[in-house]
Write a structure and sequence with these properties.
- It is built from 17 helices and 10 strands.
- By secondary structure, the chain is an alpha/beta fold.
- It has 2 domains: 1-304, Aldolase class I (TIM Barrel, Alpha-Beta Barrel); 321-409, no CATH class.
- An 8-stranded parallel barrel has the order 1-2-3-4-5-6-7-8, surrounded by 8 helices. The protein has a two-stranded parallel ribbon with strand order 9-10.
- Helix 3 (50-63) links the parallel strand 1 (31-34) and strand 2 (67-71).
- One of its GO terms (biological process) is L-leucine biosynthetic process.
Length: 410
């Protein structure tokens, strides 16, 4: 198929690309694009070695992501090395390389991805479009920005069949200029256009308004996939992404564990979990396999050195653990009483009944029986009294519980 596609003329290739895009748009399937290895790694302290990136990329492939933002070749030789490792090893996802609207960046991306089938490789171009970026960072007019972007897209389209463009700081760009940029980018050859909330300023309501305006006013938007990329500076990245899904976007981008610049990015695993639990709101979760997502979260944390908060959904240490007596009693009777989803839904560990000052009689009895102690109610009460006298914040380990039980059972 790849050899057949390579022999086609430009017009025929464009027709096939348009039909593929139309198919994706009609299907309603949400495609997941992961940027853990690029935007996520930009988080201070999260630097990954090329072999670690490959390990995570293979785990992301197993998860079922559609595309991987594999790196920024112009930024370092290490990124190029990581991409070169992925090219033969990662089979299913599209591998993309990030580029500025600079021909040298595009050439480096082409070289890093050489040997990869055309339908499995792409380039992602970005350029600031907001007044702040135009005036202070780029010192260019609207017209200069538009011409620069279109020229870069046209050049990239000579080397890549998959060309994505994102107007950096789109959420603070004037709506009329944003519309102009999307229309021009698609006319120049972009097959995907993105809406990045670069500084994480949006709310779900403003996200909906912005996306509806774009969809209503970009006349050629049906010729490209529409993607979103949110940052988490207000703690709303996942909520904004879910709002975008309800507005019909085709591609959602984020990172595992939500790592990334400042407060991070959309946590892709949380978006997938919400979709799996609420298909009536967000449509079916297709292609993503959640069975091992908790293990993937832990892998990313281990390799980046960025710990997972204990209260983080899916892989946080406390997500399937409780010390509260009422909750422990309910979980022992039926896990669904105090869980929104079972641990096996995400490949998580089993339910953990933490023994401490908040624990109740039923949980203590249960743990004692697991340890082989058959106590009557009075003895269980004495064990519980001893536990409640422990210093603030003390969790009673298995060893400590055995010792308490042994002393009371004498």
């Amino acid at each position: 198929m790849a050899r057949f596609f390579s022999r086609l003329g430009r017009a025929a290739k464009n027709r096939i690309k348009r039909e593929i895009i139309r198919h994706h748009r009609r299907s309603g399937t949400v495609l997941f694009s992961d940027t853990t290895l690029r935007d996520g790694e930009q988080m201070p302290g999260a630097t990954l070695e090329p072999r670690e990136k490959l390990e995570i990329a293979l785990a992301l492939e197993a998860l079922g992501v559609h595309s991987l933002d594999a790196g920024f070749p112009a930024s370092s030789a290490s990124d190029v090395e990581a991409i070169r490792l992925m090219v033969p090893a990662v089979k299913r996802p599209v591998l993309t390389a990030l580029c500025r609207t600079v021909r040298g960046d595009i050439d480096l991306a082409d070289e890093a991805l050489s040997g990869r089938a055309q339908h499995k490789r792409g380039v992602s171009l970005f350029c600031g479009t907001s007044p702040l970026h135009r005036e202070f960072k780029l010192q260019k007019s609207r017209e200069q920005i538009r011409d620069l972007v279109c020229s870069a897209i046209a050049y990239a389209a000579e080397k890549f069949e998959i060309v994505a463009f994102s107007p950096e700081d789109a959420s603070r760009t004037e709506p009329d200029f944003l519309i102009e940029m999307y229309q021009a980018a698609i006319d120049a050859g972009a097959t995907t256009v993105g809406f990045p909330d670069t500084v994480g300023i949006l709310t779900p309501e403003k996200t909906r308004d912005a996306l509806r305006h774009i969809q209503d006013h970009v006349p050629n938007l049906d010729r490209a996939l529409f993607a979103v990329h949110f940052h988490n500076d207000l703690g709303l990245a996942v909520a904004n992404t879910l709002a975008a899904i309800q507005e019909g976007v085709n591609v959602v981008q984020g990172t595992i564990n939500g790592i990334g610049e400042r407060a991070g990015n959309t946590a892709l695993e949380q978006v997938a979990l919400a979709m799996s639990l609420h298909p009536e709101e967000y449509g079916p979760l297709e292609r993503i396999d959640l069975k091992n997502v908790a293990a993937l979260c832990r892998l990313v944390a281990e390799r980046t050195g960025i710990p997972i908060p204990v209260n983080q959904p899916i892989a946080g240490a406390n997500i399937f653990a409780t010390e509260a007596g009422i909750h422990q009693d309910g979980l022992l009777k039926n896990p669904d009483t105090y869980l929104p989803y079972r641990p096996d839904h995400v490949g998580g560990p089993g339910i953990e009944l933490v023994i401490g000052r908040h624990s109740g009689r039923r949980a203590v009895r249960h743990r004692l029986e697991e340890l082989g102690f058959q106590f009557d109610d009075a003895q269980v009460g004495l064990v519980l009294d001893t536990i409640k006298q422990q210093p603030k914040g003390t969790f009673v380990s298995e060893t400590a519980l055995r010792q308490i039980a042994a002393e009371i059972g004498q």
